């Protein structure tokens, strides 16, 4: 992400415009309608100046009569009605387009983000991504839904007013033209600064968001360690930094507006002075001067309005850049050019063939080093080893969250890089160490394993996972709300729901990361029972922490610093592998040695 940020900064304007045009394309009709309404309302507003001129020169002249006044007023009423209708259409359509485009952008960014490789989220914080999808799209919605329309309307009035000024009095208008560079130069200078600062400001707000997210998510830890005061201070400094950056931006914008007002109104005053002399000397009529004043003020006001929204447009450019960066981020896990499809009745056989893998952030450190393993279909393999040995990495590689650096992983004899990631993961279910529950009901959380499952399927899965009984006892049974992340359930209950989810998914390959935290004997027993049922008839790879698991699996692979150092059954390894014997005695205390005697 760091790289595109810089390049996007340079070519933002063009890129931003192009991307927005792409998002506007489906709504051509609405854009056309809004443009027509915009041109009409600007035209009507421009014609008011002519009305003023006629009213003064004809309406109040000596030969005027009531009839003429009536006609003039009738015409005015029609104009007002048209202006009202035009304004309604313009406002409705432009706001609609703004909302629509920002909704589409949100959908596009989210749908892209969920396909990105997990490594992406190590460098891009969730709070930052959230802020891009919410705050940045809202900013774009405001800009497309109003600022652009204000800018265009004022641009039309500026051009229309200027043309009239030129036709009616070139000398005075020359004064306007002289002031143009004086006005444009500061707009460009301040505008550029506003834009850079707005990007900075949004980044700072995003970091405020991330901080809140983290603190609130881990509120128990924060309070348990009495960290509120320190967190408050840290948060205050985040907020103050964001405030300072915002003040810098406001300062530039305030100067932008001030400078514009002084220059533009100064020019208008000069025009009035010269025009006043012309009227006094009889070169132009009073109506013409009134109309001239009207258009001059309109031109000045439109320049002011454009400069006002110019800052918004600049901020929107910053927001768009940030969104485009997300949209342009490539997933490192690519679907194959010619995907192989798996046969309908796959067996679930796994092979690691000389797999070496280094995380992209640490390319010179092999987390997995020349690992070869064969896991026959339907058998179970336990991965054991000290912390950092590479067990979780093996699971991540099997799910193709990362691609191997060398060697290959075969699923039913097919290199997993030749499979669509979706096709591969369809056959895999994962029960993580910390079961992840989403905000929703118990039933929703189990259904996550297979979205089209019936209620009966869900109950059956819960029964198999030994979860049915406790779910029935919850206040609303399967419809009970689990709270954010499942806070309303105990650790063992969450695990059994995660197991029920995997049972429902009915995968060929089961990936299991056993919880390290000890459950009470009863929960432990139930979770173990549930797991055994889940493992029946499936290929299982489990990161083992329980004695019961290592005793029951078909084979144990002992990893050390990414290398396979021994493999076999528990009883064999206890006598043959000193590393395993030590690990087992540490892990299971005396039980490990006793278990060696358990006959298989
Ligand atoms: N996202 C990552 N980026 C860079 N290095 C990583 C990443 N995840 C893990 N590692 C490194 O890869 C090595 C293997 O880590 P892994 O998480 O697979 O170990 P593990 O055996 O599962 O350990 P534990 O039992 O503590 O979970 C470690 O040296 C670790 O520091």
TrEMBL record:
Q: What is the lineage of its organism?
A: Bacteria, Pseudomonadati, Pseudomonadota, Gammaproteobacteria, Cellvibrionales
Keyword field: ATP-binding, Membrane, Nucleotide-binding, Transmembrane, Transmembrane helix
Q: Name one GO molecular function term.
A: ATP binding
Q: Which InterPro entries match?
A: AAA+_ATPase (IPR003593), ABC1_TM_dom (IPR011527), ABC1_TM_sf (IPR036640), ABC_MsbA_ATP-bd (IPR011918), ABC_transporter-like_ATP-bd (IPR003439), ABC_transporter-like_CS (IPR017871), P-loop_NTPase (IPR027417), Type_1_exporter (IPR039421)
Say which domain of life the source belongs to: Bacteria
Q: Where in the cell is it found?
A: Cell membrane
What topology does it adopt in the membrane? Answer: Multi-pass membrane protein
The record places domain ABC transmembrane type-1 at: 32-315
Q: Transmembrane region positions? A: 29-52, 72-93, 150-167, 173-191, 254-277, 289-310
Can the keyword Nucleotidyltransferase be found in this entry's annotation?
no
What is the protein's given name? Answer: ATP-binding cassette domain-containing protein
The ABC transporter domain covers: 350-586
Q: Does the record bear Membrane in its keywords?
A: yes
């Amino acid at each position: 992400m760091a790289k595109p940020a810089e390049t996007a900064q340079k070519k933002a304007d063009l890129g931003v415009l192009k991307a927005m045009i792409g998002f506007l394309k489906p709504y051509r009709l609405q854009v056309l309608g809004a443009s027509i309404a915009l041109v009409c309302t600007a035209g009507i507003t421009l014609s008011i100046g002519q009305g003023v001129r006629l009213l003064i020169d004809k309406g109040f002249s000596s030969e005027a009569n009531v009839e003429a006044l009536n006609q003039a007023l009738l015409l005015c009423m029609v104009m007002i009605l048209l202006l009202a209708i035009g304004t309604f259409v313009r406002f409705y359509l432009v706001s609609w387009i703004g909302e629509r485009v920002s909704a589409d952008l949100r959908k596009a960014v989210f749908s892209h983000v969920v396909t990105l490789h997990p490594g992406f989220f190590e460098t891009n914080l969730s709070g930052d991504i959230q802020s891009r999808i919410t705050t940045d799209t809202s900013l774009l919605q405001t800009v497309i839904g109003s600022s652009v329309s204000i800018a265009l309307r004022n641009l039309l009035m500026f051009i229309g007013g200027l043309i009239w000024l030129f036709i009616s009095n070139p000398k005075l208008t020359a004064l306007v033209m002289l002031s143009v560079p004086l006005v444009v130069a500061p707009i460009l200078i301040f505008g550029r600064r506003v834009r850079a600062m707005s990007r900075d400001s949004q980044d700072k707000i995003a970091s405020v968001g991330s901080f809140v997210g983290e603190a609130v998510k881990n509120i128990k830890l924060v309070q348990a360690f009495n960290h509120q005061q320190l967190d408050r201070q840290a948060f205050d400094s985040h907020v103050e930094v964001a405030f300072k950056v915002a003040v810098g931006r406001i300062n530039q914008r305030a100067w932008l507006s001030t400078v514009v007002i002084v220059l533009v109104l100064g020019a208008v005053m000069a025009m009035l002075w010269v025009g006043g002399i012309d009227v006094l000397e009889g070169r132009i009529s009073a109506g013409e001067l009134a109309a001239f004043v009207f258009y001059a003020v309109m031109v000045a006001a439109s320049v002011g309005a454009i400069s006002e929204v110019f800052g918004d447009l600049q901020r929107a450019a910053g927001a768009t850049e940030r969104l485009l960066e997300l949209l342009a981020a490539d997933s490192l896990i690519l679907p194959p050019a010619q995907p192989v499809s798996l046969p309908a009745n796959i067996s679930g056989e796994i092979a690691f063939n000389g797999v070496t893998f280094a995380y992209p952030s640490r390319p010179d450190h092999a987390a997995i080093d020349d690992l070869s393993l064969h896991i026959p279909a339907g058998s179970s393999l336990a991965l054991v080893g000290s912390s950092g040995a590479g067990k979780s990495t093996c699971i991540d590689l099997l799910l193709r969250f990362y691609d191997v650096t060398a060697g290959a992983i075969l699923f039913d004899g097919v290199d997993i890089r030749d499979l669509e990631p979706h096709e591969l993961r369809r056959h895999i279910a994962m029960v993580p160490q910390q079961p992840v529950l989403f905000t929703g009901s118990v039933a929703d959380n189990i259904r996550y394993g297979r979205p089209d499952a019936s209620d009966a399927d869900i109950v059956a899965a819960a029964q198999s996972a030994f979860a049915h009984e406790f779910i029935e006892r919850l206040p609303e049974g399967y419809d009970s709300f689990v709270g954010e992340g499942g806070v309303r359930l105990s650790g063992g209950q969450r695990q059994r729901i995660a197991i029920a989810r995997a049972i429902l998914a009915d995968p060929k390959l089961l990936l299991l990361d056993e919880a390290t935290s000890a459950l009470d004997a009863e929960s432990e027993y139930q979770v173990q029972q549930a797991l055994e049922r889940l493992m029946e008839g499936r290929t299982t790879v489990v990161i083992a922490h329980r004695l019961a698991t290592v005793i029951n699996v078909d084979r144990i692979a002992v990893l050390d610093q990414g290398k396979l150092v021994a493999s076999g059954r528990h009883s064999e390894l206890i006598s043959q592998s000193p590393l395993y014997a030590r690990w087992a005695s540490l892990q299971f205390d005396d039980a490990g040695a006793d278990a060696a005697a358990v006959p298989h």
